[in-house]
Amino acid sequence: MSDAYKGILIFVVGPSGAGKDSLMAGAATALSQDPKISFVRRLITREAMAELEDHGTISEAQYEEMVQQGNFALHWRAHGLGYIIPKTIEDDLRAGKTLICNTSRNQLPIAHQKYPIHVINITAPLALRAERLAGRGRETKEEITQRLNRKVDDIDPDLPQTQIINDQSLEIGIARLLDAINEARTQKTAM
């Protein structure tokens, strides 16, 4: 990892239906006036559902071209889709910004080698996750079952991390996420 990175990359992870997108949207609104915090806009090979998520849409061909050219900070495939975190995050980290991004757990070891990171793991009880996934109306019952049954890798205990159980109201979940972000920023500043 380069010593040139003065900022921190906060990765938000968690199983499908944990409420990551909703909590991140609320936190983004609450933190929108802070110029030292940015929410990273991922590129995904799927149209965004405006009310649920904020990402850039790219085609499969664009995804493959970006990967072949090395034009990414991180990239992965999940649920039949391609995901890219733009390389531009490196400039923001050099400038000392706090970057917040929803990502895949399998990217954490790679990211930890390249960037200063903190992981916020958002989870929720299985029944609540199932209810949330069904409410999105984006997947069939079988696809929801597959998401819920998908094995989730453990997070390396050596990575700096915070866990949030998102089983209360949206407002409480957002407040918990804001607290975790502030704690991660404080720990980075103290280093």
TrEMBL record:
It comes from the Bacteria. Pathway: Metabolic intermediate biosynthesis; 5-phospho-alpha-D-ribose 1-diphosphate biosynthesis; 5-phospho-alpha-D-ribose 1-diphosphate from D-ribose 5-phosphate (route II): step 3/3. InterPro entries: GK/Ca_channel_bsu, P-loop_NTPase, PhnN. Keywords: ATP-binding, Nucleotide-binding, Transferase. It catalyses: alpha-D-ribose 1,5-bisphosphate + ATP = 5-phospho-alpha-D-ribose 1-diphosphate + ADP. Its EC number is 2.7.4.23. Residues 6-185 form the Guanylate kinase/L-type calcium channel beta subunit domain. It is an enzyme of class 2 (transferase). NCBIfam families: phosphon_PhnN. This is ribose 1,5-bisphosphate phosphokinase. It comes from Maritalea mediterranea. The gene is phnN.
